[in-house]
Amino acid sequence: MVNRDNIVDGDKMVDRDKIVNRAKIDEAQVQEVVNRVRQIEEEVSRVMVGQGEVIRQVLLTLMAGGHTLLEGVPGLGKTLLVRTLGRALGLKFARIQFTPDLMPADIIGTNIMTETDQGRGFKFQPGAVFANLVLADEINRATPKTQSALLEAMQERTVSVAGVTRPLPEPFFVLATQNPLEMEGTYPLPEAQMDRFLFKVQVDFPGEADLRDILLRTTVHDEPEVNQVADAADLAGLIKTAAAVPAAGHVTDYIIRLILATHPERPEASERIRKYVRYGASPRGGQAILLTARIRALLEGRFNVAFEDVEAVALPALRHRFFLNFEGEAEGITGDILIKELLESVPKAGGVK
Description:
Strand order of the largest sheet: 4-7-10-3-11
Largest sheet: 5 strands, parallel
CATH class of the largest domain: Alpha Beta
CATH superfamily of the largest domain: P-loop containing nucleotide triphosphate hydrolases
Distance between the termini: 38 Å
Shape: globular
Number of strands: 13
């Protein structure tokens, strides 16, 4: 059930119904969101084994209208997860296999010469990006030039070819998979493209029990059927409802303090941030935290964002927005390590300077 208690605005307790009405949501809407997301999670979990947290994080990004970067070694089911989500949501699905010889035109499309009764002319041939759910498989195996072909699509939801800008289908999501960068034949994604991913989700190797279940499920001929439990209109409704969840002023200020503390030149930065970080998180990092924290609050049955929601989404929202200097890379420092330190050290009380 939805917990309507302890709703705050800034540092003051206010009338609970006033906040709920301001957010234009009610308990029935919240319960509908919770039920629908659980249906999607259950359907995907029939195929994906032992990746409950990964599934939840991907759904958080979809409900926030953002893109997801999935990182893990080959064979962990990253591609299967995206395919299964496409079926469960009833979205038009397209897969792009990124390779070193992939060209930008293969992704966004190109003008081709055609001949009709009226004569010869050019006709636009759409690329694979013209879909609702685009799987950019092993995105870091393509060259930076090809990777950058997705920049406009991910930000503006449009594609420009030969001076003509064309809108992409709505909704539009990119779910990209990448192998760890130290693997042979991979290219680091440009910083601008990394920042366009709302979440970077780490897909870890399964434990013993999950591995046993995977082996038993995948070595038989009877594969589970994936049923459609939502469509594009349902997803649009979920996104709209989640965006209406209010965040109190002191919670928003905490998010701002977290972002500022990632920048080595800021007075809020810790000694280790100043020592190991070249550039901190962009404002998109704060947007990612607030958007997904709202959705998590709904899924936890609350009408308002709490500190625990911020802490739960901070890792996937910020880990790819830390750019380490040479000393940080040499000492094996990671974004995850620094984010966990920030969550422990940045005060939850106090204003923003």
